[in-house]
Amino acid sequence: MSFGVFNLPWWGDLTIALLLTHVTIVAVTVYLHRHQAHRALDLHPAISHFFRMWLWLTTGMVTREWAAVHRKHHAKCDTPEDPHSPQNLGIDRVLWGGVFLYVKEARNAETLERYGQGTPDDWLERNVYSKFQITGLTLMGAADLLLFGFVPGVLIFVTQVVWIPFWAAGVINGLGHHWGYRRWPTPDASTNIVPLGVLIGGEELHNNHHAYPSSAKLSMRWYEIDVGWLYIRLLESVGLARVKRVAPIPHLTAPKPVVDLQTLEAIVGCRYAVLAQYGRFLRRAYCEELEKLRRFAPDDAKVLRTSMRWLVRDERLLGEHERTRLAELLSKSEVLRTMHSMRRDLAAVWGRSTATREQLVGQLQNWCRRAETSEIEPLVDFSWELRRYS
Question: For the chain, which ranges sit under pLDDT 50?
């Protein structure tokens, strides 16, 4: 039996494996994801290069490749061009084979050229990290064998190599678009897997991230924990990081007589919070309509009761069967049909990229006028809530 420099008990080897993989998780979420892919924070060159070197040793990943694949995922999210969408490829293929999907897309020269701009391109990157990807893994494997002995070293090394492909490429890219809860009505299928972002450094809060991709902080409720944000704050406290952006917090004042440019800017900046709030008013209207139909049209009430979950979802996420059921639901209630249409019109305000700010303000004012003359109480109340954004 061979021994390494450290002859640890089994629980010591397990602890070492978890600590080493945790450093890799931090490197992925802080350096690759929030710093490189989304520019949500700046890192000191020393800590930035440490993370880059560590990822070379433990994963063999190249910064440009990772950032490019991830940026394309956001640009083409849950469409046929998404490199790893379970909505198109199936959950099993992404969960268990996410690493192969990543490698395939990382070899796409067009993806690297279009989405890989602004990543490190120094001598080390060109001549070491990108050229000798296997060398880093070989060095780490040799170090594990030397320090911990043959069997523990092999197990620790295998854990390091498998950790990111499974948890990041499989679980986050797979379950993060398939199962979990949705805090924000984003136009993709992203979900928060759990509110405790501990195991994968905060990446579990995936729907939060898709709502505000340029935010350095992924937690947005008091009960959500983002370990990656904890490390960012620690690095910031010693001058090794500088946060550039976090998700905006809606600022509400007394309702304005007329929505203005300031209102528009606040609404566009907090658009998913606005849509989430609209969803609550839409559910209120749904409950009122359901109660009416139960008394006067029991058969129509049954349709509403079985189809409500599709009423508040983005239509782009619905399949053919779900669209049919939604159309049947809307045919039973003019109130819900109006509110569903008004939601689409509201989202279109910030989707008109070619309109001037003055035109967008006019469109928002028109939306409020239509809402307040609709005689639909939840819609009227929501319009007055919009006037509070500042």
Answer: none
